[in-house]
Every structure is written in C-alpha cells, then in structure tokens.
Design goal:
With about 425 residues, the protein is mainly β. Helices cover about 15% and strands about 45% of the residues. Strand 8 and strand 9 form a beta hairpin.
Length: about 425
C-alpha cells in the first residue's frame, strides 16, 4: 500500500527584503586573482602560482603620521574537487601605505601578492579569502582549478598576461596583469609562458584571439626552436585596439607537419577604467539599456555600422549620465549594471533575469522597501508583493505556472518605469 505524505502550509506569510547578495563595490571587484600551472622541481608535482590583486578602493585606509595605511589578510585554502577535504592552507597579512588620500580612492591603484604551491596534478577547489583588518569585511572567491601534468616530453605552462616591465635594482621585472584587462595597453596583448621539451624541437606557434561569440578577430604565427630545458617566452600580440568585451587568447603549438602538439588558452577583457566588471559584451550591454535609454537613443546606438562606433556612442551616453564627471567613478553607470547583474542571478527563469517582470522593476527602482512572499496559499497561486514607500507604489507578482515564473499583475502606467538612482 502506498504511503501518501501531505504537508500543509496554512497562510504562510514571509516578510523579507530583496537583498543585494551580489557584492556591491561598483566598478571594482573585491579582488582579482589568477592561478597558473608551471613545471615543478618536485617529482610528480606541478607548481601553481597564485596572484592576488587587491584594489585600493575596497580596503579601508587609516590616517597615520606619514599618510594613510591599510591592512588586510589573505588566506588561500586548497581542497579536493568536492571541497570536502582540505589539502593545504596558507595565510598572511599585507600592509599598504599611501602618501595622499586621492591615491587611496583611485580606481587604478592596487596591491599585488604572490604565493606558490606544489601539488599533484588533479582538480582542486581553491578558496581565496581577503579580510580587511580594520573594517573586518571579508571577501571570498572559489574556483575549481584543473592542475595539469607537465611532465610529458613536450608541455607548456599557462599563459600569464603582462601589464608592463619595470626595472628593479638594475634587473627587468614583469608586472602581471592579474585583472586581465588590456584596454589601456596600446601595444597589444603581452604575455609570458614556459615551454618544456625533452629534446631540440622546431615549433610553429599560432596565436589566435576570438570574441565571446567565437569569431576569430586576429591571428599571428611565429616559429621558435625550443631546447632541452625550461624555455621562457615573452610575446606581444600587436592587435588593433579591441572594442569593449570578453575575449580568449588561444596558443596552438604545432610541429613541422602542422600537427598539433599542445594548446593552451586564456580569457581576458577590454574595458575602460570605471566600467562595471559585469559588462563583457557590448551588444548585450546596449540591449540592457532599455530601462534607462529612450527608444530613439537606443536606435542611434544600435544603427551604427561598426562596433567601434557603437562603443563610442555608448560611452558618450553613460558619460552624460555621470553625476560626478570630475571623478573616475560613474555612480549611475555602475549601479545600473549592478542591478542588471543582480536580476540575472536572482530572477532568471525561461528568460534572462533582466528581461523578467521582477528584473524590470528591480533595475528601474532598485530594492523594494518591503517584500511579502506568499509561496503556499490554499486559495491562490504563489505571489509576492513589493512595496516602494518613497514613491507610494506597490507591485504584485504572481507565479501562474507554479514553476517560479512570477509575472507582474499590477497595472503599469505613467513614467515611473524609467531608471531611478
């Protein structure tokens, strides 16, 4: 005989806020990091270099006799792939000094940390945590990282993007581009990598850059002879200026018969200073302006024939909205796309979150002052009520299908639906 379990929910009323669970730092992520595989000196191991870049804007500086000082800790924890068993962990503190207040708030300033680990090839979960020692705020990033076996007769390390070279005590040093943003690099995409060979080899190097839609934008070939050692390679791909967006650099290594020996790739970005980190596709970003731009303004941008022209017009639109044009930060720009990103994370259903009714209201008006959630009612379908006290508006969303597809049933009228800061 089948047992039937019935759970009754009587008039459940949940009072809550639509929370901003996405870290709100505007145009600057809490920190950047990069994980890279290199050949280890230890048998059967791979060396993993970990870079952590913390922007000045996200740490708290305290006034001192000599200027301003900030302190934070970094913890790198490495687990097995399922994050159930810790393999190793390392923690340390960093202190950053600045002579003037302006530099502490500049979008261009950051502090870079570096550590190495020797691990057996496998998949691991890396947990990186930064804790501001003054404000006590902590920021966490998690990534499952595949540590490759580089003991084969012919192998290549990961690609490290380079911002520039500087001279330290008479020696040239590379400054890693941990944020992987090449917008300000007028000489193209600069990179460093290592090739490991068990014999003398002539190799054809094929560099390709593709966009987010996998269209090939640029390619260049080079030839090198690799010795029986660790071969260090610095290469600059002199690309034309790349429009705003996300890209991938692919490096194929082939023999004289054009057979592929090995391959490696790296994702990178092109975005100007002050651009929200969530904006990676220009065409998508333009489409998402529907709640703040007039139809004629969108047409003016979308009808331009080239991506470069659309980008220029796009930048002009947002600069005109900047409430503080004398600063690097554009508060309206960053807040708008923060709301878009939040909507994509929390309101996605059959369509992208920013296109849903909840997404439309959230992007337009921001978080409501109060939310009533009614997920289980005998006499009605699941519904939510959002109240905005400052504009005296209430919006009711009903899940008609029972699968979380909440639709707005409140009549829409007037001009309230244009973006409000």
């Amino acid at each position: 005989m089948k047992k039937i379990f019935i759970v009754l929910f009587l008039n459940v009323l949940i009072m809550a806020q639509v929370e901003n669970t996405i870290e709100k730092t505007g145009t600057v992520p809490m920190f950047f990091y990069d994980l890279l595989d290199y050949k280890s000196t230890q048998p059967a191991k791979t060396r993993v270099d970990v870079y952590v870049e913390v922007p000045y804007r996200v740490i708290q500086f305290v006034k001192t006799a000599k200027g301003f000082t900030a302190s934070y800790s970094i913890t790198i924890s490495i687990f097995d792939e399922e994050a159930e068993r810790m393999i190793t962990e390392r923690s340390w503190n960093e202190t950053v000094d600045s002579k003037d207040f302006e530099s502490t708030s500049s979008l261009k300033n950051y502090y870079l940390s570096y550590k190495t680990f020797d691990l057996a090839p496998n998949k691991y979960t890396f947990r990186l945590e930064v804790v501001d020692l003054d404000s006590k705020k902590n920021y966490i990033r998690n990534e499952v990282f595949d540590i490759r076996d580089l003991t084969a007769p012919f192998a290549i390390s990961d690609l490290l993007l380079i911002t520039k070279e500087i001279e330290v005590q008479g020696k040239k040093r590379m400054v890693p581009n941990v944020a992987r943003n090449v917008a300000t690099q007028k000489d193209g995409v600069n990179l460093y990598y290592e090739v490991y060979s068990d014999t003398l080899r002539d190799v054809l190097l094929e560099y390709k850059i593709i966009d987010i839609k996998e269209n090939e934008l640029f390619s260049v070939k080079d030839k090198k002879t690799f010795d029986q050692k660790i071969n260090q390679v610095n290469f600059s791909i002199g690309t034309p200026e790349l429009p705003m967006g996300e890209y991938k650099l692919i490096l194929n290594l082939k023999d004289s018969a054009d057979n592929l020996l090995t391959s490696v790739s790296k994702t990178f970005y092109s975005r100007w200073v002050g651009m929200p980190s969530s904006v990676v596709d220009l065409d998508k970003a333009i489409e998402q302006m529907v709640y703040i731009a007039k139809e004629s303004e969108l047409d003016d941008i979308e009808d331009l024939p080239t991506k470069e022209e659309r980008q220029k017009k796009y930048i002009q639109f947002w600069k005109a909205k900047d409430p503080t044009p004398n600063t690097e930060e554009n508060e309206v720009f960053e807040e708008y796309y923060r709301r878009v990103e939040y909507s994509n994370v929390h309101f996605k259903h059959y369509i992208e979150g920013w296109k849903t009714d909840m997404g439309m209201i959230y992007i337009t008006l921001g978080p409501p002052n109060n939310v009533e959630r009614h997920p289980f009612e005998f006499d009605s379908k699941p519904y939510e009520v959002w109240d905005y006290y400052d504009i005296n508006k209430r919006f009711i969303f009903v899940d008609q299908t029972g699968f979380g597809d909440y639709r707005l049933i409140t009549p829409v009228y007037g001009s309230w639906w244009r973006y409000r800061p």
